[in-house]
Amino acid sequence: MGITFRDGGYTRHIRIGKRTIKEGEFALVWDVNGRCTKYQGPRLVRFWYSTIRFCTNYIASEKQYLVVSHKDGRTVHTPGPCSQYLDHLLHRDIKVENAVQVAADECLVVYNDIAPHAEDVKDAVEGSPEKLPASTEIKYGPCLFFPKVRQTVETFAWTNKNTLSLREQRDSVSVAGKTKDDHEITNKFSLTWKIEKTGVEKLLGATQNPFTELSYALKIDVTKQLSSQVHDDFIKNKNPFGSDTFGTLNEKAAEIGVKVCQLHFEGYEINSARLKERNAQAKAKSDEERRLKDAEEKERLNDFQLEKKMARAEKQAESNLEEVNQRIQIVDREHTAKLDREMKEHRQRLEQQRELSLVKSEYLKQLKENEVDLTKYLIAVVLGERRKAAKKNNEDDEEEDFLDIDFMQQKSPKSPTNV
Fold it and tell me: Which helix (H) or strand (E) holds 76?
């Protein structure tokens, strides 16, 4: 028997035997004559050339429902929580589907079959024909929707979801257009829009994608505005798109039941080949001017360096000249001082010679008065000087040579004959 529950994949052909159908299991048994008997556990069943097949139990939670397809063509939706066995005699298939969760500020579009089912006709006859559901229903959240058999939930192509958001949505839109002077410009916008609650039905009948419609209307307005301006005026204008520019956009939004909350111009991008060529030429011109400016700056720098170098050389020459002049002045002062010293010494020697000459003259005068032969005396003095010069090989002092004290003491005026 085992502890696991058997499902529709369990099929056995039994000649003679028995099977225990546990509580919570459901099985179909075909006997030797082909008759089918249904068994709900717990049950012990004996077999004689029979075939047994268990049935799968499908369970739906509170947020799910069962889609039961009968072999007679009917389809039944059973909201959860519930469970049901797949009866192979009655059912073709059973599926567990999730209910549609509709959040706040969301809605759900449900389409009903125009031709009512027999059960709906019976209910309408007993009551009023108004009980028949409308062809389109809109369910606003928050709610949990279980679709019926005759109902189809709309799937929106631009979101690929079953629910339609009523909140504000923000999208980026790029629109390319040409100016009056044939320059291509791509403008970037931030579009904030939302679907109005009262305009859902209008939206369903007007378009399959509201964002595409709004983008196309915006493109018409931007292209019209660009075609009326030249490129330079468009670049200079800080706000090239005024509030009265987007007439087509506002009309289209009102037509499809959408409200445009905000439209912000984010900027533009130049795509024109002519403008790119002009910009390239301007860039080349700017590069050439920059190159010339750099060359001039380099030349000015070289001139400045040369001027500084020449100024330094001139200052160095002046410094050298000043140093030479100072040296010359020092040499001149030294030479002048030397000349002064020599002149002073010369004067002193002359004075000494003059005094010595006076003394000598006075001495000779006295000698003459004493009747000394001056000629012999002078010859003796000269010969004595020559002998001294030859002996010493240098000159003695003139005063000592000329005034011989010893000679003067030996030769007195009273005895001139001893000379």
Answer: strand 75-79
Taking the CB of residue 120, how many other CB atoms lie within 10 A of it? 17
Query: Quick count: other Cβ atoms within 10 Å of Cβ 411?
Result: 18
d(CA 382, CA 398): 12
Picking from 223, 261, 225, 259, the residue whose alpha carbon sits closest to that of residue 240 is 225
Taken in order 214, 216, 221, 223, the sign of the CA dihedral is positive
Residues 15-27 as b/e (b if ≥16 CB within 10 A, e otherwise) read: eeeebebeeebbb
Residue 380 pLDDT grade (very low, low, confident, very high; cuts 50, 70, 90): confident
List of residues 6+ apart from 370 with CB closer than 8 A: 412, 413, 414, 416
What b-and-e string marks burial along 296-328, b requiring 16 or more CB atoms within 10 Å of the CB? eeeeeeeeeeeeeeeeeeeeeeeeeeeeeeeee
Instruction: List helix spans (H) across 30-151.
Output: 118-126
Determine if the peptide bond prior to 416 is cis (ω within 30°).
no
Q: Of all helices (H) and strands (E), which one includes residue 330?
A: helix 273-369
Which contiguous run of DSSP H or E holds residue 12? strand 11-21
Q: What is the pTM of this model?
A: 0.56
> Which residues are CB-contacts of 20 (< 8 A; sequence separation ≥ 6)?
1, 42, 43, 44, 45
Which residue(s) pair with 62 in the sheet?
A: none
Q: Which tokens is 50 given?
A: 């029979």
Per-residue DSSP letters for 269-295? Answer: EE--HHHHHHHHHHHHHHHHHHHHHHH
Instruction: Please tell me the predicted confidence (pLDDT) of residue 247.
Output: 87
**Amino acid letter for position 379:** I
| 83: nearest Cα among 69, 99, 94, 72 | 94
Q: Residues near 135 by Cβ (< 8 Å), separated by ≥ 6?
A: 111, 112, 114
On the CB side of 17, CA atoms within 13 Å amount to: 11
Q: pLDDT tens across 11-58, in order?
A: 999 999 999 999 999 999 999 999 999 999 899 999 999 999 999 999
